[in-house]
Amino acid sequence: MLPQAGPLRWRNVVDTPAVLIDLDVVERNIRRCQEQCDKLGVTVRPHIKTHKLPLLAHAQLAAGAVGITAQKIGEAEVMADAGIDDILITYNIVGERKLGRLRRLADRCRLSVVADSASVIEGLARAFANARSEIGVLVECDTGMQRCGVLTPEEALKLARLISDTPGLRFAGVMTYPAPGQGNAASEWLDDAARLIREAGIETQTVSGGGTPDLYAMKRHASLTEYRPGSYIYNDRSLVAAGACGVEDCALTVLTTVISSPARGRTIVDAGTKVLTSDLFGMSGYGMVLERADCSVISLNEEHGRIEYASEQAPVVGELLRIVPNHACVVSNMVDSVHLVRGEYYVRAEPVAARGQIT
Amino acid sequence: MLPQAGPLRWRNVVDTPAVLIDLDVVERNIRRCQEQCDKLGVTVRPHIKTHKLPLLAHAQLAAGAVGITAQKIGEAEVMADAGIDDILITYNIVGERKLGRLRRLADRCRLSVVADSASVIEGLARAFANARSEIGVLVECDTGMQRCGVLTPEEALKLARLISDTPGLRFAGVMTYPAPGQGNAASEWLDDAARLIREAGIETQTVSGGGTPDLYAMKRHASLTEYRPGSYIYNDRSLVAAGACGVEDCALTVLTTVISSPARGRTIVDAGTKVLTSDLFGMSGYGMVLERADCSVISLNEEHGRIEYASEQAPVVGELLRIVPNHACVVSNMVDSVHLVRGEYYVRAEPVAARGQIT
């Protein structure tokens, strides 16, 4: 499905800094996730925020995903433009402009959103009262992440009732984004909520969990029907640190050039926060240098990455170094295009179609 | 020079999250910087990485700047396309592709770059050996930032000699980006280097310092001829914290909508790291909420900003809050367009023409 490599090596093609995506690793990661979810008895609805590429969304669907997840309407619009017809937006949609876009989007794909308050549901109700298409609405549950979401299964039931009773809205189930490491506990929370809602006579089609950190540590749950992992397709240094994957499973790397080795033990590369971002995820350092285990990316400015190295051998100006970033999703958002590769070989540049979609 | 506001209030025009730029504040900041540099007897060469907008680069030039500073060739190309004809790229240019672009760029503007090693100078020498246009080269000096730059004035002299002796290259002077708070010490370092180079009989046209953090704390220096501030045009929370400006001097704010107030004391807005970035600059929290002094932006995910508030009054879903970010420059790089405003009134959307220029 995904394109093959040509005869050129990326080393001779790509200018730096650049984001490389190894499709061999991507294909392996997609397969592994699908197998795991098949084993858990849940469908996969990958979050496209990690790659923001229609090409890879289609590859995920071809491997068995039932649809995709997006965070913003703009991302969903780009994916609908690319022919993807089943989209869940896991975000409270607030404001008349966005609600108008949502109504138009529902006319061209099977669309669901989430809500965690009566206020959000009222907005959806206004927008879809006389709409051509209905919209699925899941209740977002705070199972420990302390972000959005209702705080108790009882509150989830209350909102489920409100959605069920609202013309134009279809109650579609419950969802959560679990705090990393709490995927199983979060699913028990959802079990309770789903039981309560079903006992009240309300059909609860989807019980949706997610998150790559817990994907391979999940067990079967009574109610869980769907899993929404995102980062698994690329993986990153934070997931290696969490034990969720190995370095060889990291499909996204940042190719950099050494531009200065001004002092013993210190070298500067041409990737800073404008590519790697400042995301630390509780770790120290801003990435892992693949070519040299003795290197630490100790600090970043916008266009400079400062690397300290332990060995006697200083990196030479012009040398290429690849960095596995702390957090792959945010790196995709920094660049207009990524470079698809397979091993040492170049495939092509691919525009990051859903980059920068903030509304 | 800069456009005036229309009759509409931005509150009724702009969808969130959005980056607002108040041109009234911008004009005041440009004027204040120019006056300070006039007083110090140095020319201004603003760094456009903060705004990435030809419109504001032209406003800086109209106010008296002698040219602009850019960090990457891509930024310089965008500015040259917009008719700006004096550009300094404060970055080691390494690699044949980039050197080719640099040579072509030198044909259409007065262009300078920096170098901190013989290796970088050799690359420039190859590229400009038979070029139509010469290029100015300044020696980058590490005066305490511990990033790029030669470590001693003696090394600076050595590279100045090498540049002077190389056909196609014009030795243009010395430059530094000082560690914040060390602007005056850095200028003394440059004084020493400039004296050494002049004593060797090499003309040293430009002695260039920079940085907004020290701009208003600078004193006159024997050799300093040029100052390259960037952030002063927008300012941000880090500069307020450093005492370099007041909150009322911050021209860039991020407009957000409250999307959830799920628990007492906690509210969620629709701006996360995809707009505000993870830059902390040693502070705690990710921004300052203008409308509510009791609010702290305690953490961000990609699309969520988590705010804790002390008062009894919970922000309401749909409410607009403006956030002064920790670091304005990186916020400009996250969005395809910013919204120009004057006070409460809307001017227009402006594409961030030099956004995402990483090479």
Automatic annotation (TrEMBL), chains A, B:
Signal peptide: none annotated. CDD domains: PLPDE_III_LS_D-TA_like. Belongs to the DSD1 family. The keyword Nucleotide-binding does not apply. GO terms for molecular function: D-serine ammonia-lyase activity. The keyword NADP does not apply. Residues 251-342 form the D-serine dehydratase-like domain. Keywords: Lyase. This is D-TA family PLP-dependent enzyme. GO terms for biological process: D-serine catabolic process.
